[in-house]
Design goal:
Elements (H helix, E strand, L loop, with lengths): L3 H17 L10 E5 L5 H9 L4 E4 L2 H8 L2 H4 L4 E4 L8 H5 L4 E5 L2 H10 L8 E5 L16 H11 L4 E5 L8 H14 L4 E3 L6 H6 L4 E4 L1 H4 L4
Parallel strand pairs: 1-2, 1-8, 2-3, 3-4, 4-5, 5-6, 6-7
Length: about 220
Amino acid sequence: MFKVKENINIIQNQIEEAHKNSNFARYPLPKLVAVSKKQNDSRVIEALEAGHKYFGENRVQEAEQRWASKIKQYKNLQIRLIGPLQTNKVKQALNLFDVIETIDREKLAREIAKEFNDNVKTKSFYIQINTGSEIQKSGIEPIQSDDFIKFCKEDLKLPIIGLMCIPPLKEEPSMHFALLKKISERNHIDELSMGMSSDFKEAIKFGATSVRVGSSIFGNRD
């Protein structure tokens, strides 16, 4: 047995400590989203058996294979898409994920709006912001974010409740978390998905409402 339950408990304690010492202590505790992408299934089952409810996946196909039966077996799970979404996988994604965190372009937003209705599983969406303006990374440029958020919320009538970012590897993450927080405040968006294994405590200082942690829970991917 890998120490998944123990790792979850350690990280939950670290989240509680960071939250308690932040300026956001009066708000609800940030959610721990366990990043299960490409992880050994036995370790994911350990997390489920430990009672963990929030999981993040990168690919629609892989997520479907992993979760189709588990969501019937384990109650009250919340599965989030935290990787890029192709337009031809939108219908599939809307019937699998509870939250999609990675709306990052107009074409994708329009396709989601076309397929979105009361019967799909996805009830809320985040917009991914490319805070570091990295060419190789998905996400809306910060300078375009206000217009894009308005387009998604007002023109397409999508339930946009959050923003998400992945800071550049070699830059101080706090400046990116601060930027995402600033964008969220001026657009009246409450949820912030930011912070991973190496920097989630820093993200909590800037108001993260969920953190995405993989290797610190499950160990390195196979």
